[in-house]
Amino acid sequence: xxxxxVQDFRHGSMDQKELLGGKGAxxxxxxxxxxxxxxxxxxxxEACRWYLTHGAPPDGLAExxxxxxxxxxxxxxxxxxxxxxxxxxSVRSGGARSMPGMMETVLDVGLNDESVLGLAEQSGNPRFAxxxxxxxxxxxxxxxxxxxxxxxxxxxxxxxxxxxVSRDVDLDAGALQQLxxxxxxxxxxxxxxxxPTGPREQLELAIAAVFRSWNAERAVVYRxxxxxxxxxxxxxxxxxxxxxxxxxxxxxASRSPVTRPPAPPASTATTWxxxxxxxxxxxxxxxxx
Length: 289
Fold this sequence. Notes:
By secondary structure, the protein is α+β, with helices and mostly antiparallel strands. The protein has a domain at 1-110 and 198-243: ATP-grasp fold, A domain (Dna Ligase, domain 1), CATH 3.30.1490. It contains 9 helices and 9 strands. The protein is globular. Residues 249-289 are annotated as: Disordered.
């Protein structure tokens, strides 16, 4: 029997934290409880350990990911990167023990020059669609291809100056579309390759980047400080994107940030609407602007 490298959220549980990571195990448990969790799947810590040992994905991983993407597409009624109604996914790390902000995340995987038009049509919000695409190219460039953040930040500042605005959220759809082109030119110049527009290639490269982030300097330092075993590896959670930057988003909080009532017990949390923008582009303090 071939090794199982990928597990649907519906088939896991909390007692599999070492295999699915803490995040993956919690997502599986909440799915099992019938809570409204976006559909997705977890690539196991075993796959990560294989990748880090051999420098390449294990045999069968790509095929298993493809099979689970097909299940995800069926569940969501969308196709990854579809030009009319695209499924987009997030690719997130998740070790057995929490390492907040130490590893990588890639959002909006599946966007390209065609699917961005489908997202604009389905959302009725071209600005949202082009902003999501901009964020993907930026995040992909820094997280997956190793480009420094500064060139992207400088390009964003120039775009705002050209439009006479000071905030990212005040850039209109046209400016964001031009910024996507600028970002892709930066990728071509600084990474020596084109930004990958194929959704499956984006997903494959994003998964590998999350695996590699287990050995990023900040992650290694954090593990030493917290006495987390260096050989445990991270799981990778791939799940359907649920957007908050259409105007309002929801961030987990123990009480309303507006009324600030007395805090409830630590075991409880609720969600409260927050203004325009995503809850977080990454778990760390680094903003994808």
